[in-house]
Write a structure and sequence with these properties.
Elements (H helix, E strand, L loop, with lengths): L1 E5 L9 E7 L6 E2 L4 E6 L4 E5 L4 E6 L6 E3 L3 E7 L3 H4 L1 H8 L2 H7 L2 H12 L2 H10 L17 H10 L18 H5 L10 H16 L2 E9 L1 H18 L6 H14 L6 E3 L2 E3 L6 E3 L1 E3 L2 E3 L2 E2 L7 H16 L5 H4 L4 E5 L18 E5 L3 E7 L2 E15 L5 H16 L2 H5 L2
Parallel strand pairs: 12-16, 16-17
Antiparallel strand pairs: 1-8, 2-4, 2-7, 3-6, 4-5, 6-8, 9-19, 10-11, 12-15, 13-14, 17-19, 18-19
Helix pairs in contact: 5-6, 10-11, 10-13
């Protein structure tokens, strides 16, 4: 007997999603609660589990289709005997693989692997670089490939090129290389569409302005190098720079509460807590889970929370609750090598702090030119609510706390 697979509840006020990828083919055996499809909402990816153990029957929607909560997207033939009752879909799904591999190994193999196991974003990367996805080790949920996996393999040169065996035939001339021009049209993911709309809305609604400062990272680097081993041994998490900056931000928000406020209609809402959104990398792009009540957390608790968010993002396990809310955002472009940027606020928040890469630069200290590890800070803010004086005061407070971390202990 066939059991219907329905779109699960996606979170408060979320009524629809996009089918990002089918994780199982018709005829594949599935276990109870095993993910068979991945849905993309406005904020996170959600796996659809199988309601019973058996064999996947029909796929009633295609990748890229929009589906509503409660909609039936597939059927599962329950029980072990289901395998015998659904031989046709299984054969149809698997039969073309062998002849396709012998006649044209490159393109069909890539299409089969990407259509079954790869998200649209990962599939695009694999096709762009002409890689064999089976040669890349996946670190996502159930071993699925993520964008980070593909990019790491490209950087390390460990991924095999799809169809590499016929390469000698191409050495007879350069014409094949010159004419190998291709285009691919890929529908934007729901997450990317939402990000585009929200960022454009922020530019059109808020009076955006960015103020810069720089900070000498010597003291924080020295403290980190001195205590990182003991810190990891005691707390079970590595000591990074985000813990210091998050604590410094929370202190600065107390001094300049307008930076932690939001405009609602003709009112200003001030928050006496700091829910800090932190940008982390996920397979489908950057997402911003929220560290709640960060002002009451220790550096160790902050680092643990960020570490957990990073693992969940990589595995595609972030929930709507993880992403909801937030009063201020920290975006660390420095991990990607950014020297300076003007980040855009995350509405309805009023400000975002951009961190950048640390590099040795000559600075003047006590009348002498010395080399110091410096970082540029950028605060983008809604000028309708935050004045330039407040923005500068906020950045200076962070600068003082980072250059003299003792201030973080005595709340100064």
């Amino acid at each position: 007997m066939a059991t219907e697979v329905k779109v699960p509840t996606l979170g408060e006020s979320v009524t629809e999603a996009t089918v990002g990828a089918w994780l199982k083919k018709p005829g594949d055996a599935v276990a109870l609660d095993e993910p068979i499809a991945s849905l993309e909402t406005d904020k996170v990816a959600v796996d659809v589990p199988s309601p019973v153990a058996g064999v996947l029957g029909q796929q009633l929607v295609k990748e890229g289709d929009t589906v509503n909560v409660g909609a039936v997207i597939a059927t599962v033939e329950a029980g072990a005997s289901a395998a015998a009752s659904a031989p046709a879909p299984a054969a149809a799904a698997s039969a073309p693989v062998a002849p396709a591999a012998s006649s044209a190994p490159a393109s069909p193999a890539t299409e089969d692997a990407s259509s079954v196991t790869l998200s649209p974003a990962v599939r695009r990367l694999v096709l762009e670089h002409g890689l064999d996805p089976s040669s890349i080790k996946g670190t996502g949920r159930d071993g699925r490939l993520t964008k980070d996996d593909v990019l790491a393999a490209v950087a390390a040169g460990t991924a095999k090129v799809q169809g590499a065996a016929p390469a000698p035939a191409a050495t007879s001339g350069t014409a094949s290389v010159i004419t190998a021009r291709a285009e691919e049209r890929v529908k934007m993911t729901r997450l990317r569409q939402t990000v585009a709309k929200r960022l454009k809305s922020a530019q059109e609604t808020a009076a955006l302005l960015t103020t810069f400062n720089d900070v000498d990272m010597s003291a924080v680097i020295e403290a980190r190098n001195k205590y990182k081993d003991l810190f990891e041994k005691k707390h079970g998490v590595r000591l990074g720079f985000m813990g210091f900056f998050t604590k410094a931000v929370c202190m600065a928000l107390k001094d300049v509460p307008a930076v932690n406020a939001q405009i609602e209609g003709d009112e200003i809402v001030y928050y006496n807590y700091a829910d800090i959104s932190v940008a982390v990398s996920a397979p489908n792009g950057l997402v911003v889970p929220v560290i709640r009540n960060a002002e009451a957390m220790s550096v160790a608790e902050i680092e643990k929370t960020i570490g957990d968010f990073g693992k969940k993002a990589k595995a595609g396990a972030l929930t709507m609750e993880d992403m909801k809310g937030g009063t201020f955002t920290i975006s660390n472009g420095g991990v990607f090598g950014s020297l300076m940027s003007t980040p855009i606020i995350n509405p309805p928040q009023s400000a975002v702090l951009g961190l950048h890469r640390i590099e040795d630069r000559p600075v003047v200290v006590n009348g002498e030119i010395v080399i110091r590890p410096m970082m540029y800070l950028a605060l983008s803010y809604d000028h309708r609510l935050i004045d330039g004086r407040e923005a500068v005061t906020f950045l200076v407070a962070i600068k003082n706390a980072i250059e003299d971390p003792t201030r973080l202990l005595i709340d100064l």
